[in-house]
Amino acid sequence: MLARLVPAPLVRWFARPYVAGASLEAGLAVARKASEEGLLTTLDLLGEDVTTSAQVDANVAVYRRTIDALAALPAAMRPSVSLKPSAFTTRDPGGVVGPIESLAALARERGVALTIDMEGHRWTDLTLDLALDLYGRGFDVGTVLQTRLYRTADDLRRIPRGMRLRLVIGIYRESSRIAMVEKPAMKRAMLDAARFLVARDVHVEFATHDVACVETFAREIAPRAPRSSEVQMLLGVPRKALQRRLVSGEYGVCIPVRLYVPFAIGWRDATAYLRRRMAESPNVTWLVLRNLFSR
Question: How many CB atoms lie within 10 A of CB 57?
Fold first, then answer.
């Protein structure tokens, strides 16, 4: 409810540090700057929860342009691509398979890594099944698991050796029947999941801004698999010093840091994206309001 009360101009103003801009070119510019600072990136189009087939077609077209643009960059600095299943279907969840498989095929042809993002718990089975199927058929496809869900302990066992898996605590509002609600338990679960995956030779993408969690991962877990571990953070979150410590090897091994770079085709989508995040997570709403007043 509170998310709808914040005027759109203020939402856009707040969102600017967290969204690369209102064009693919803006996203690419942020990726280039991050590369100059020694960081990796993944680009994500803000266009999920579509309601028309025209929106699906537009999202596919933008992602095809994105993959082609990334393929032209040197491999060492080439961003990956992240996408959300709900950006590719209006009603039937199964409708995402065709569009995403076509983009995975293009990404493989162009040498661009692709990650299928995770949304609310209702998407878990479809997302995981699709990602595992594509990876099993030779596509460079990774996915995401929310460690606060109780089911994740079993889902981790399905991830094969060598696959990329982004671990997140999860920001979606979930029932206490299916998800942890206490923050200390969530953090322990995330670290336990990372230990489990590293032992199975899975490429772990540890995505959180919690400094204590990141430092534990850097000191205790990543050194066991220095070539298949990285830390991921959202664009705009002030963790520059921590990022420098990770990539410089201050924790005993150089750990790559990848920024998650959202971009939109027009600020309307960017505003809608932030409103959804505010509605899904009360913490995001209060962060927005606090930043508005502090600015």
Answer: 13
Map out the domains of the chain with their CATH numbers: 20-263 (3.20.20.220)
| Sign of the CA dihedral with 21 first, then 23, 27, and 28 last | negative
Share in percent of the chain as helix, strand, coil (round to 5): 55, 15, 30
DSSP state of 152: H
| Burial classification of residue 52, based on how many CB atoms lie within 10 Å of its CB (0-12 exposed, 13-18 middle, 19 or more buried) | exposed
**Distance, CA of 173 to CA of 160 (rounded, Å):** 28
In order of 28, 31, 45, 80, 257, the CA distances from 25 in angstroms are: 5, 10, 12, 15, 22
User: What are the pLDDT tens digits along the chain (295 aa)?
Assistant: 455 656 666 666 666 778 898 899 999 999 999 999 999 999 999 988 888 999 999 999 999 999 999 999 999 889 999 999 999 998 888 899 999 999 999 999 999 999 999 998 999 999 999 999 999 999 999 999 999 999 999 999 999 999 999 999 987 888 899 999 999 999 999 999 999 999 999 999 999 999 999 999 999 999 999 889 999 999 988 799 999 999 999 999 999 999 999 999 877 777 776 766 666 555 555 555 555 555 5
Q: Rounded distance, CA 16 to CA 235, Å?
A: 10
Q: What is the pTM of this model?
A: 0.90
Token pair 């790559």: residue:
256
Give the Cα separation of 105 and 126 in Å (integer): 19
Nearest to 163 by CA among 196, 180, 138, 188: 138
| Gap between the terminal Cα atoms of the chain | 23
